[in-house]
Amino acid sequence: MSFTSPKLVNRLDYLFAHRVWHSCPIGEQRICHTSPTDHVACQIITKPSVRHGSGPWRAPTWLLELPRAAEIIHGYLDRFLDKSLGFHNLAKAYDSLVSDIRIQLKEFHIQRVDKQRLPMKKLAFEIASLLQVPNMRQDPVLVGRVRDLQQQIEKLQTTQKEFRQEQAFKLHLYKAERSSKFHFMSPVPSPLKKPVFKEMEHSDGNLVSSQNGISIVLVDYYSGLFALPSSRPQGDDLSSFLGPLTRDKQLSDRAKVELAAPLRANEFYHAIRKSSSNSAPGPNALPFEVLKLAPHKWSRKNASTCPSQGHLHANPEDDQHTRSRHPSHRPGRLWNVPRDADARLQHPNERP
Asked: Where is this region: Disordered (predicted)?
């Protein structure tokens, strides 16, 4: 808070104010008049305090279940992917995409909330108008109407309370799901240790048991999972891959699906950061809305959007030969995966 003195110097030696003003946030202040003396009157206008939230606004889960929310997200994301090759600054374009999506969802959320509150407002307005009628309590018709309105209000409040409890439970499950070991990790299940994976079969049919060999097999498998949904491994391929994981315990169908679709927000963030290092978005590059409704659309053009991520090997034999000579060789299909994630694959026991 700064005050301007008559000599246009931003300085204030003493300010005497009531303790109530001291605790209020200041919205505006200005000089009432110019004075030739060393003292001048100040006018201070307070503003209502605003409670700071935990971060940027995010669409609630119930809003994302509506068709209009899906239409907003898919529409903006499709336009972004169609124009991705023409962007000179991919990170800036992605920031605009996220902002536009959340602005539209916020407006849609306000409309839905106002529509949900409208019945309660009508009932409250009607019951307030009835209570202002003179001698209302002596009229049995008006008394009965007031009681009926009170019952309707209680019914609406009960319905809203149940709805909030259900949404809170869904949000709790979602947070627990995001924090599980199957979400937002490197493309290989962690920890990757020999006692967990005894041996795995390579694409050429040979069994490998070394740490580096198992890492290569898993990287090759997961790189195929980032392809289009029609070309991903299905059925027996997934069952054979999950064999080492199901020897000691039986995984649920949901866990298998989670392992089969390892979408990682840090991979897309890494690609954007490499394309424009001066204006990279935050670490959670993929917003909650896109993760919830369109988890695989961005991967369709990830390779074409960032062609400078690495050199692809056209000859599989040369790629295999290079990999055998260099244990830390990175497959061309995973050049967008962060290097620290690949380092954890090669050296899982080392901590950053």
From this structure: 300-352
